[in-house]
Structures are given as C-alpha cells and as structure tokens.
Amino acid sequence: PGDHPLPWQLPPDHPVDPAQQTRKLKDLVVPAFQFHPFTDPTTGERCSYCFCGVRCSKSVVGDDVKILDATGKYVMPGGIDPHTHLEMEFMGTVTIDDFFTGQAAALAGGTTMHIDFVIPVNGSLSAGFESYKNKAKKAVMDYGFHMAITKWDDEVAKEMELMVKENGINSFKFFMAYKGSLMVNDELLMQGLEKCKSLGALAMVHAENGDGVAEGQKRMIDLGITGPEGHALSRPPVVILKTCLFYRAMPVVTCDFIFKLSKFLLLQYTLLHTYVDIAVRRYVMSPPIRKAGHNKALQSALSTGILQLVGTDHCTFNSTQKAFGLDDFRKIPNGVNGIEERMHLIWDTMVMSGQISVTDYVWITSTECARIFNIYPRKGAILEGSDADIIILNPNASFKITAASHHSRSDTNVYDRRTGKGKVEVTISGGQVVWEDGMLNVMPGSGKYIRMAPYGYLFDGIEKADAAYLASLRAPVHRTKAAA
Ligand code: URP
Ligand code: ZN
Ligand code: ZN
C-alpha cells in the first residue's frame, strides 16, 4: 500500500545487524502478520519490524513471540488446493482421508487451504451441505466448498441460489462421467450452466462422457479384459473431446467463459506419466493417465500461462479399498493422493527445472486460485489484512516422498520414492506455526469455513462477450449462408 516498500524488500540503506536478527527480542514491534511500514508515519522513526533495532510506537508484543529465521529461504503465501475429495462417499466406499488427516497432510506439505466438493444427499444440496459441515468439524485448516449437481428440478435450481446467497458457495460441479451415480446428462448440464451464469457462479466439469465410458467398459469386459488396464483402455481421449465440442457450441455460456474455465490442471497429469503403469490398481483414476509426453505438454502450458492452476483431486483409497476391483476394474475406486505432495512436486518439476519463476510458483499454487474463487487478497497473498497463511520453503533442502512417511491415512502413495529439491520447512496457518522441524502441531476444529462470494473476476466483461456473440449470430453473413 502507498509508497511503502513491500515487506520483503528492505530499503537499500536499511541497517541489518546479524546479532539483532537472532536475539531474543523483548517488546519487539511486530504487528502480528500485518504489513507494517518501515518508517513510523507519526514519529518518523524506523521500526524494529525488520530487526533494525529502532522501536516504534505501532504495536508491541510480549516475550512469547516466536521468531523464525528464514535467511536464504522463501517466505510465501500458503498453497491453496482447488480440488479435493475428503471423506467422500464414492464407488461403494469412502475416501480414506477425512478433514483431519487430509488437512494435516496438506499442512505438512505447505497447503493451508483447500476447496472440497460437497456431494448432495439424494440430490439435495442443503442435505449435502449439512453433511459436509459436520464432516468439517474436525478441520485443522481453512476450507471452502464447491457443490456438485447430480439431478435437476425446480428445487435444485432454488437450492443453487440459496447456496450462493446464504452459504458462501460460488462454484458448481457437473460430473459428466460416473453413469448411474454422479453423472448428469446434457440437458441437465445446459440448465445447470445457465443457472450458474445467472448467479455469478463458476461451473466446473468432469469432462469425460459417461455414456461413452460405459460403452467402453462393456467392450473391455466382452473382450475378457478385467484387470486395471481395462480402466484406461475403456476411456480413450475421444470421450473427453465430445464434451469439449459440446461446450463450444453452447450459446448461453460464452466460449470465452468456457475457455477461462478450462484453465485448471490436475497434478497427476502434469507429473505422473513418466513412470505410471496403467495395469496397477493404485494408479486408477479418472480420466486415466495417458501416454508419456502428455505431462511435458501440460508443463509447457503451465509455464506459458495457458493453464493457470494446479489442483490435486486428492481422493485417496488404501490398498484394501483398491482391491474391491480385484476381478473387475469397474469396481476399483477411482482416485489418487496429492494434497501433501503438490507444493513440493510443482517446485521441483517447474521451478527447479527453470520452467517457471518463483513468482509464477506463488501465482500457480496460491494467488490465482484465490483470485478465481474471489477470496483474494484474504487468501493468496501476504498483505495487511490477509489471513496469516504462510510457508517457508528452503530451496536448498531435499524431499523424499514415501507411503511410510506421508501424513495421509492411505498405505500407498502414487509418488512413492520420488525425491526432489525444495522443502517446505515451516507452515503457518491462521497465524499459528503448525508444521516445523518435521512435526505437525494441529488442533481439530481450528479450521474455518471460508465463504466465497459470486461474480469473481472471470465474470468481468461477460455481458459484452455475450452481446458480441449474439450480434455475430444476427450478422448478415450468417443469414446469407443459411439461405444458401
Ligand atoms: O479419479 C478420480 N478423479 N476420482 C475422484 C472423482 C473425480 O472424478 O473427481
Ligand atoms: Zn473428476
Ligand atoms: Zn475430483
């Protein structure tokens, strides 16, 4: 704000005394996690916020203040994972990580907020919302909700409005896959998209075509292919293509809007291809992992800004649950882990390789998610008034992922034995140090529900875009062509 330097930029003439940097400060002037000017505007004195040793009158904290030395490390906003499924009832079972274990794992990996998907109960959004409110009572970090739409009638349309206006939800999810459970048909999708737009809510889509998948699965079974490889073979890329083409033909939601929506990316597709074996149950997820090389294309799209976010789709099942599909791949619960690994893997894959800058990293892992879901700058930033969700990442330390040492309840990890450079050494959630020296210190119930207002920035200019689209339909060239 104003002319002040940003907190991490010391004025060039600022004295830095190493002895003072590490001393136990009494009456240290540190307004807790708020931006504090280096020069006191009333007295003109330098403050000791940055350890220069000159006290100012802004605010005083006691001896118990904790001092963290981040010399040579990066201090960044905590990560926000836009796509998770904690304690979700799915494919005859429930995901193994709940709002306690899943969030604890997230904090150990530098993620301080996530947005989970509420699944309606018998189509009822209100019942689904109540159920997830209960599940989240043990939350140890902040969270928000997307809401899935699984059926359509006037009641659902009314409830969507209620969710946006009363319950702080600004995004709805349509699963075009999972026939017989979550899947919605094209008619419902169109009605749902129109409703989203009228409410200023974002629409999200699982873009596999459920009928196509069901047909593919039947063919595999007819061919006698019942093992995990049948999962990938039954869902060729064409089942996604149809959905994409369909969106582009939608006059209600402009292409621009859809284009903006398509900028989400999931971690596993960016990273996993190189060593995934589709014939292994623990890798079964939807859409399936495709050919080696796709991950590189996705990384390029991320580095050029075509894709702007990375979520995880953290949806964990242990090996016993995965074994439900021992004789039939259709019964293997779909989903893999990622909530704890995301920050490390993006750093190692994208920053260490030089594909993106450190600033891009903050954008991709935190800021842009906060902007899209309309919670910036409360989240996604280190600014005056922002929540104190902060991480310290040591670029010189290394990480090693193992199923034995991770914090998820699952006994498997799709990134098992993966090593890399860059380690989140400290996580601060809501002003509390919750991860330090490899130890978690979390309190069930401390996580807050973050309400998200409609009409985020992706809606800017949408009316103009709609008007231009309608004008183009009325243009003489179209009529002439139609007459011909
Ligand atoms: O395999 C996946 N992705 N499982 C979670 C459900 C979904 O499709 O989001
Ligand atoms: Zn999905
Ligand atoms: Zn998902």
Automatic annotation (TrEMBL):
Belongs to the metallo-dependent hydrolases superfamily. Hydantoinase/dihydropyrimidinase family. The modification N6-carboxylysine is found at K173. Carbamylation allows a single lysine to coordinate two divalent metal cations. GO terms for molecular function: 3'-5'-RNA exonuclease activity; dihydropyrimidinase activity; metal ion binding; nucleic acid binding. It comes from Cocos nucifera (Coconut palm). This is dihydropyrimidinase. It catalyses: 5,6-dihydrouracil + H2O = 3-(carbamoylamino)propanoate + H(+). Keywords: Hydrolase, Metal-binding, Phosphoprotein.
